[in-house]
Amino acid sequence: MSVSLHFQDETRLGLITEGGRKITLKGVKPIGLKQYERKCFYLYGTVAPLTGRTFFVELPYLDGECCQIFINEFGKSHREGLHILVLDRASCHTSGKLKCPPNVVLLPLPAASPELNPIERFWQDLKKVLKWQCFESLDKLEETLWKVLKTWSKESLRSLTLFPYIEEAFNA
Predict the structure, then answer these.
(1) pLDDT by 10s per residue, the chain, length 172
(2) Order of all β-strands in the sheet with 82-87
(3) E strand or H helix at 64
(4) What are phi and psi of 130, to 5 degrees?
(5) Residue 116's domain spans which residues?
(6) Paired strand residues for 52
(7) How many domains are there within the chain?
(8) Diameter of the chain measured on Cα atoms
(9) What's the rounded Cα separation, in Å, for the pair 65 and 144?
């Protein structure tokens, strides 16, 4: 039986424009269009640093019910082998109500340690791509998001997320 290691997390994406750095003269603030419409959704995702495999589900809320939907969908798409799902200690992950498929095991990270979760690095890169972009609707944001998600190769994801401690631990 094969064993796979996946790191899970969620990120909020919405219509409020994310600003960021732009090249300007010293002392000149970057100029860009911004919008402030308060509509959003959550992207639940996993990355397997050893293989570069990803899995994403878009859901409306960050709560236990949506987390359960994500775990169910993850289990359906990962039927073969045993899958260790490493996640943080967000309240929706620790409620004790989550039920895992038989081939999925939840492994919590230590409290307040986002630096140990390599998918956090992926979220940073994803949001860099979306900086300064304005979307007329959530549908347009979703469309752009799924196009952007397809641009990462498995090798670039491995390079981004395979922390030395993960490789050492898995090969021990």
Answers:
(1) 799 999 999 999 998 877 777 778 888 887 777 777 789 999 999 999 999 999 999 999 999 999 999 999 999 999 999 999 999 999 888 878 899 999 999 999 998 888 999 999 999 999 999 998 899 999 999 999 999 999 999 999 999 999 888 888 877 6
(2) 53-59, 40-48, 3-14, 82-87, 104-108
(3) helix 64-77
(4) -90, -5
(5) 3-171
(6) none
(7) 1
(8) 58
(9) 26
Question: Which residue is listed with tokens 């990962």?
Answer: 78
Structure tokens at 1: 């039986």
Contact 130, 147 (CB under 8 A): no
User: Shortest CA distance to 83 belongs to which of 3, 7, 162, 158?
Assistant: 3
- Per-residue confidence (pLDDT) for residue 172, from 0 to 100: 67
pTM metric for this prediction: 0.90
Sole residue written with tokens 């300064």: 132
CATH number at residue 158: 3.30.420.10
The span from the CA of 11 to the CA of 23, in Å, is 27
Assign residue 92 a region (left: φ > 0; alpha: ψ between -120 and 50; beta: otherwise).
alpha
Q: Which residues contact 138 (CB under 8 A, 6 or more apart)?
A: 14, 15, 39, 40, 41
